[in-house]
Amino acid sequence: MAENNPFPGENNTGHFWDDNLRELQNPPPRWWMIGFWLSVAWWVLYSILYPMWPMPFETEDGEGYTKGILGWTSIKEYKQGVEQVQAVREQYDAQIADMTAEEILQDPGLTQYTLASSKVLFGDYCAACHGSGGQGNPGYPVLADDDWLYGGNLTKIAESITNGRKGAMTAHASILTEQEVDTLANFVVQLSEGGAGSEADWELYNAKGCQACHGAKGNGVLAELPNGDIVTVGAANLTDSIWRFRPGGYESAKHTILYGVNQVGVEGTRDAVMPGFAQLGQLDGKLTPDQIKMLTVYVHQLGGGQ
Ligand code: HEC
Ligand code: HEC
Prior knowledge:
The chain is mostly helical and 306 residues long. Helix content is 44%, strand content 6%. It has helices spanning 30-49, 74-97, 101-106, 108-125, 127-130, 154-163, 178-192, 199-207, 211-214, 250-259, 289-303; strands at residues 12-17, 21-24, 165-166, 223-224, 230-231, 273-274.
């Protein structure tokens, strides 16, 4: 072949196509060779440092691969990561244990930590009823607004979580005439739409004892204390457009008036029970005082205070 080479002196392999298309034997460029040998060296080094080669036999601790002299494993790395996170958390948790909810709220860093960790707690213990962002569910109150049945300051929120809540409203089916129920239901709807209600409506409302729980103004507030706290028995605010029991409106209001709330033995009564979370310690799905404190801060921030 060589003597037939039409390109004498050229370092080709002697393979030609189409007369002059040919395969040369030039070495790859130097930079490319350096890169190649470096990557081989890197690979050898890596296989010495890190776990690499599967082995047909089991090594001392029972696993069939070379360990690498650094002793690195992904499980070890994961465990170290978890330990680091726990060390950080323990610091925060220890601080929180010694603080009141008010004090936590004054510290932006701790507040942020508290909100982040209680989000998980809220998801586990509260979201089933109150919705994942506290936005409420049919039959369960919204926590992410400033409309409170029992008050939205830290003390009241902590009380709600610790002891639970169970509002009670008398069933009026046997107390009021059909006409009176109709008038009151219409009155309540009017109030919820921003109406003022007629004098006769208010008279009936007062005469039938509604004001004893829903307050003289119908907003669920029985008294306002000098420090701004409100006194309530958990009766709904009838003067806002938020309906405690869905779907709301005339029929819904009528139903509540007729059958009341949490009335034992009354068929059709509204169910409104919030479990207390402090009775038994954590084993029974109950919360520790610190967890309640953190959730108090969380709910307070959801609702923008009281
Ligand atoms: C089984 C359902 C249920 C679960 C779980 C639940 N709640 Fe409630 N929660 C209720 C009901 C119902 C009410 C209203 C009680 C009433 O009407 O008297 C309520 C009321 C409240 C109130 C008072 C609201 C107000 O307007 O004053 C707060 C605060 C509250 N819940 C927080 C929580 C937190 C925090 C958790 C989780 C630790 C939680 N709830 C878990 C059903 C639940
Ligand atoms: C013993 C106290 C009490 C009395 C008396 C009472 N209520 Fe209530 N009422 C409540 C409570 C508590 C709730 C439910 C709050 C909760 O659990 O969310 C409620 C809820 C309601 C609701 C439902 C509101 C909503 O948003 O879905 C209406 C309507 C209502 N009451 C009207 C009346 C009328 C009208 C009267 C007078 C005939 C009256 N109530 C008397 C305590 C009372």
